[in-house]
Amino acid sequence: MTVELGTRLREVVGAGTAAALDRGLGLRTAADLLGHYPFRYAQRGEPADLGALRIGEEVTVFAQVRAANTRELPRKPAKRGKDGKSGKRPPRRMLTEIVVADEAGRTLTLTYFNQPWRDKKLTPGTWGLFAGKVAQFRGRLQLNSPQYQLLEGEGADGAEAVEEFAGALIPVYPATADLPTWKIAKCVRIALDTVADPPDPLPAAVRSRRHLMDYATALRQIHRPDSFESLGAAKQRLKWQEALVMQAVLVGRKAEAALEAATPYGPGGPILERFDASLPFKLTAGQREVGEEIAAELSRPHPMHRILQGDVGSGKTLVALRAMLQVVAHGGQCALLAPTEVLAAQHHRSIAEMLGELARGGELGSPDEATRVVLLTGSATAAQRRDILDDVRSGAAGIVVGTHALLYDGVDFADLGLVVVDEQHRFGVEQRDALRSKAERPPHTLVMTATPIPRTVAMTVYGDLETSRLTELPAGRGSIDTHVVPYRDRRWMDRAWARVREEVAAGRQAYVVCPRVGGDEADDQAGDEEPRPPLAVTDVFDELRAGPLRGLRLGLLHGRLEPDRKDRVMRAYAAGDLDVLVATTVIEVGVDVPSATAMVILDAERFGISQLHQLRGRIGRGRHPGLCLLVSEAAEGSTSRDRLDAVASTTNGFALAELDLEQRREGDVLGASQSGRKSHVKLLSLLRDADIIYAARREATELVESDRGLDSEPRFAALVGDLAADRGDYLEKG
Ligand code: ADP
Ligand code: MG
């Protein structure tokens, strides 16, 4: 029998082991197993980083036995039977404690109950891999009954161990309790020894141009590296494969979309001209430039797929509105999708306001070119909803504002020409497919995001979209001062609340942001691992009202309120009837209250960099300077504190976006991570491998341009096809 990459594992490693590999790690074929790469490589004598262990984690540590000792534990008191006589005498209990240490001298205790022979095997001086779940006992970290593989010394597991670890670099695999890393290593070795060298799926031209190792060698070297050098070459090669396949999918998708037919709308149009004439300010240079790009694309018979990046307040919404008016002018309809109902309602209000009489189509005395702007949310009554849906179906409503539910809700458009997605990271291929079903022809799409996207992310997560950037803010904005405030310092906190009162006394408004709603299970847990749950908005609201902000008009806003109630609170705040809004991140994006000048973010370290930046963008939207206080317990010098300091040091969104990327775990950016779930991107890092990504983009573009179906590269085409079929896996940013 020939064993190939596609062979089922039971034919390679036997039925029992194959079942465990499938159950524990979802590995079914030889290819799956060989694609289960080590996540690090241990070296004899290296520091095992025992300092970084976290309670509850399954770990494999490479360490040396320092001491071994078995003793008898005191017997438990005998239980008394019902009759009051003492029951059976409890059994003897033996505890074996093995202390292991890394180079740095940090120690970890291994414990075994009633296995006194363990200390004969685990003799001081022996090096081994120890795998188990980290637990804590009387303040000390320990592994209870860990499995192990010894490397040398009297207790070493004979010839096999020596052979298995003869190389300098010992692969350490993502493992499970049933399958410690050395068992996986053994299976991999069997697979490497029995599987015929797979043919190389990368186009030969790319391989030679980029000096890439061949596939079979790369697979061997990543699992059983001869040296750091060959390991590096293997990783480079495998990363290239990941990048090239991904880019081929994206470039192919983009090329395909460019061939699709769409309705052209434009350019120009009376309602747009009238609107422009009514604007009380001049467009920024960026708004004009991007506006022209969009206007030209909407006028073509192919669908636009564009993402518009610009910092909070850079005027994206205005750009989008002008695009919508162009479509409306030419008989099309537009959908504006917001991530929450609060934001949808606000968009609806502000668009209606900006358009003025141009939004009162069909009403007595409104201009001929006017249209109607409707809001479709869950809080509409059945009758309201029916009317709105009629307007949408008839085409009377030129602009329909709502949440993403719009896409799935059985809403029929007369002629949906443009979809604008506001502040949305998860608008992926699936959503675009849903949209296609709304219109005979795919509508044009414009995605707006206030998180400036690092280039590598734009090229991967959004790699099938065109991108535009608004880099300047409209003139006349106040600046924002940001400070980190230590939560435990009474004087600082008093001063923070005093500043809020000062702003309110000056006729302005403030936000207080908390990470959590409250009234849930987090309130009941207080273990020693989590000193206290994150601050809850409901608690903070009560405390502020009774204490530091007594006498001010406070509003409470969070995601669990009824939509009606949320809308009322938001309206009251926007109207200036509330001084301070105590809220969760429901206010995160798009909320626009120009007289809000102060923001206090509690437990600020709980938020990501981008999130903090976006929250901060809620203030300083008017002429007055803004004040943002990041309240945190994070210790000076900790990474959390560093993040907060970074946010305090700049308001440049593009700089913070790059930093945010650095601080995120790779898996958060690209979807599935090491959990054993099948993923196409295992090694490639958006952070460290920007060069590979850019170069792969160029190669993929060339490949797709010269051979759209990739017919001359069937093996590569198969990989591209696999990934394309697995949509959403990496395209949706979490
Ligand atoms: P974004 O959606 O990018 O956060 P908005 O489009 O909501 O930004 O614009 C923020 C505010 O700036 C709005 O009140 C808008 O009316 C105003 N604005 C937009 N463009 C300009 C401009 N060119 N000059 C002055 N103000 C502007
Ligand atoms: Mg906006």
Written description of the protein model:
This protein is α/β, with parallel strands linked by helices. The chain has a domain at 480-650: Rossmann fold. Helix content is 38%, strand content 18%. The strands form 4 sheets. Strands 11-12-10-13-14-9-15 form a 7-stranded parallel beta sheet, with helices on both faces. Helix 9 packs across helix 26 (714-725) and helix 10 runs antiparallel to helix 12 (316-329). It starts with 9 loop residues before the first helix and ends in a 9-residue tail after the last helix. Bound molecules: adenosine-5'-diphosphate (ADP) and magnesium ion. Residues 281, 283-284, 287, 310, 312-318, 450, 474, 592 line the site of adenosine-5'-diphosphate.
Q: Bin the helical content.
A: 25-40%
Taking pLDDT < 50 over at least 5 consecutive residues as the criterion, the unreliable ranges are 158-163, 666-678, 728-734
**How much is the radius of gyration in Å?**
31 Å
Q: Whole-Å distance between the termini?
A: 44 Å
Largest sheet: 7 strands, parallel
Strand order of the largest sheet: 11-12-10-13-14-9-15
Whole-number average pLDDT?
84
Q: Give the percentage of residues in beta strands.
A: 15-25%
Structural class: alpha/beta
Q: Could you give the count of β-strands?
A: 21
CATH evolutionary superfamily of the domain at 480-650 = P-loop containing nucleotide triphosphate hydrolases
The name CATH uses for the topology of the domain at 480-650 is Rossmann fold
